[in-house]
Amino acid sequence: MNEKKRLRWNAVIDRVKDIDGEIIGAELGVWKGKMSYYLLSELPNLTLIMVDRWAPPIPGDSYHTSGSEMALCDIKKFDKVYAEAMDRVFPYRDRTIVYEMTTVKAADDVENYFLDFVFIDADHSYEGVKNDIIHWRDKVKIGGWICGHDWGNVKKGNVQKAVEEFFPREKIELDCNSTWFVRM
Questions:
Q1: How many CA atoms lie within 13 A of 131 on its CB side?
Q2: Nearest 5 degrees, angle CA 106-CA 113-CA 108?
Q3: At 85, which helix (H) or strand (E)?
Q4: In this predicted structure, what is the pLDDT of residue 109?
């Protein structure tokens, strides 16, 4: 029997699926909403905060210079992927909160110690990941997870360097599909 390939949303689901009651999570960097869809479809008790600017960055900012192909798209492409993301999560719209803005600005609207997890996958530059950790780590409940994507992928920035600056290496769990996790 062929086992399905384990992807980043599976790693998140495995860590939060046994939470009793409502699960509150945030995904920073949604793009087309594929991860959002899988999280919402597999976790019926999840309310998901979806954060993405869905707009080209200002030339010269950390996202623009991160090397991400997404950061170089024009507004027409961003409008298209935003529509795709909203269509994808439409069946779960009563369990989504969408912030079409930068991750740093969206953090201002989320209470401290409110989230069971935050998944960082937006600006992959060192500065971007560092800012997301600074602004979102206190949003996670004690025992919850701060986590993200692209560990070790230097082509997409230096995620690993930013994460290791805040958390001791022995506290960082690595999982499938270049994901990393730290229990708060």
A1: 18
A2: 20
A3: helix 75-89
A4: 97
Report residue 75 as tokens. 């507004």
The 10s digit of each residue's pLDDT in 120-164 is 999 988 999 999 999 999 999 999 999 999 998 766 558 999 999
Q: Is residue 2 one of the residues assigned to a domain? A: no
| Within a domain: 24 | yes
State in Å, rounded, how far the first CA of the chain is from the last one.
Answer: 37
Q: State CA 145 to chain mean position distance.
A: 11
Count of domains forming the chain = 1
User: Rounded distance, CA 80 to CA 101, Å?
Assistant: 16
CATH classification of the domain holding 134: 3.40.50.150
The parent domain of residue 152 ranges over 8-183
pLDDT confidence of residue 62 = 81
Indicate whether 152 belongs to any domain. Answer: yes
Q: Where are the beta strands (DSSP E) in 29-139?
A: 46-52, 96-100, 115-120
Tell me the residue length of the chain: 184
Residue 156: inside a domain: yes
The rounded percent of the chain whose pLDDT value lies above 90 is 80
